[in-house]
Structures are given as structure tokens and as C-alpha cells.
Design brief:
Elements lengths: L4 H12 L2 H4 L4 H10 L5 H9 L3 H20 L5 H17 L9 H21 L22 H14 L4 H12 L4 H8 L3 H19 L1
Length: 212
């Protein structure tokens, strides 16, 4: 398959400066609206995309660009470098003819982006070993805030989450904000199912103590 560079550049230019990408606090509202519409399921889009459907590819890009931006920026990556990682990810995705089974497009994309960020940080720090335990910081921009009371509560919760170890912060984000299953979290964080359950349990236990 071959992706028209002009086509991909157009998609990136639209979303790079979009309101949703720059202000992720409003992503949750946008996601609710999108789900209310008659939209193809990820599995249908993925299958069509693997058959060479450029429209399906564009739909996947639109659906997950902001999600990838939010997740990636939590690893304290510069926006320009993160945008490059996402562009590279989608280019490789289109050009890759692999028929490997993908159970969750969202988990696959998030996991692939995380790997690229790991490699980027490895290159920047000039180390030979890639560490999974990267710095992870949650922002209140990840939450929809409707009132001053909501803002205060959100800031309190975010502050508590950011006191957790990096891996616990990440799994709280993936489970509670992105609403991923343990299977999807396991794929992204490269841990087994039971380890994901245990990590999330410990994170919630610690959060309760911090918020009590």
C-alpha cells in the first residue's frame, strides 16, 4: 500500500492546530458527541484500512489523533517531537503490510506511540537501555470542568494522582480516563493481565489514602 504524502500532511495540518488537539479538556465532550453519531466500529475501520481504504485510514487518524496527543504529552515530551512521533506512526501504519491480528486499534496505537516515545527518550539521553518507568504527569486539562467546584475537585484529584509512582499514574489514566480494559492496558504497558489488575488495585488504594 502507498499513502499519498499530501493526503497525510493535510490530515496532520488540520489536527495539529485543531481546537481539540490544543485543548484536550474538551476532548471528552467531543468524544461523547462522536459516539452518539452513527460511526463505524474500530474493528470495521481497521479491517477496511488493511484492505487499502484511505477513508478508513483517515477516520482512524481523526478518531485517535487527540487521544494520542493527550497520552504522549503526559510523558513530558515536547509537542513538536510528539507530533513527529505520531506522524511517523501513521506513515508506518499505512506502509506496513502485516496481517497480524489487532484486537484493539486504540491499544495498538497507544502502545506503538509509547514505544516510539521510549526510543525518542533513549536517543535524547544517549542511553542503551529503554526504561518503561518514564515520567508520567497528568494534567487537569484531561478532564472536563463545568464549574468552579468541579475545578477545585479536579485539581485535588490530579494532585493526588501525580503523587503516585509513574506506572500507577499511567494505569489510572488508562483505566479511568481512557476506559480501557485490563487486556488493553496489559498490551500498552507490556505486563500480564494479573499484573495490570494488581497495579491498578494498588494505585486506587494509594489514591484513597491520599484523598482521605
Amino acid at each position: 500500500m502507498f499513502c499519498n504524502p499530501i493526503f497525510l500532511t493535510f490530515l496532520i495540518s488540520v489536527y495539529k492546530f485543531s481546537f481539540i488537539a490544543r485543548y484536550p479538556a474538551f476532548y471528552k465532550t467531543w468524544l461523547i458527541v462522536e459516539r452518539l453519531q452513527t460511526a463505524p466500529r474500530d474493528t470495521e475501520l481497521w479491517h477496511a484500512f488493511k484492505q487499502g481504504d484511505q477513508n478508513a485510514f483517515a477516520c482512524l487518524f481523526r478518531r485517535y489523533y487527540s487521544v494520542l496527543m493527550q497520552y504522549g504529552i503526559s510523558f513530558t515530551v515536547e509537542v513538536s517531537a510528539l507530533e513527529d512521533c505520531i506522524q511517523e506512526l501513521f506513515l508506518e501504519l499505512w506502509q506496513n503490510n502485516s496481517n497480524a491480528e489487532v484486537r484493539s486499534a486504540k491499544a495498538y496505537l497507544l502502545g506503538s506511540l509509547k514505544y516510539k516515545i521510549l526510543k525518542l527518550k533513549q536517543k535524547q539521553s544517549r542511553v542503551t537501555e529503554v526504561h518503561e518507568d518514564m515520567a508520567f504527569e497528568l494534567s487537569h486539562d484531561n478532564f472536563l470542568i463545568k464549574s468552579e467546584e468541579d475545578r477545585q475537585q479536579t485539581l485535588r484529584v490530579v494532585h493526588a494522582i501525580n503523587q503516585l509512582p509513574n506506572r500507577q499514574k499511567e494505569i489510572v489514566y488508562l483505566k479511568l480516563y481512557q476506559r480501557l480494559s485490563y487486556e488493553e492496558v496489559s498490551e500498552i504497558m507490556q505486563i500480564n493481565y494479573q499484573a495490570a489488575r494488581n497495579l491498578f488495585y494498588q494505585a486506587i488504594k494509594s489514591l484513597r489514602e491520599l484523598l482521605s
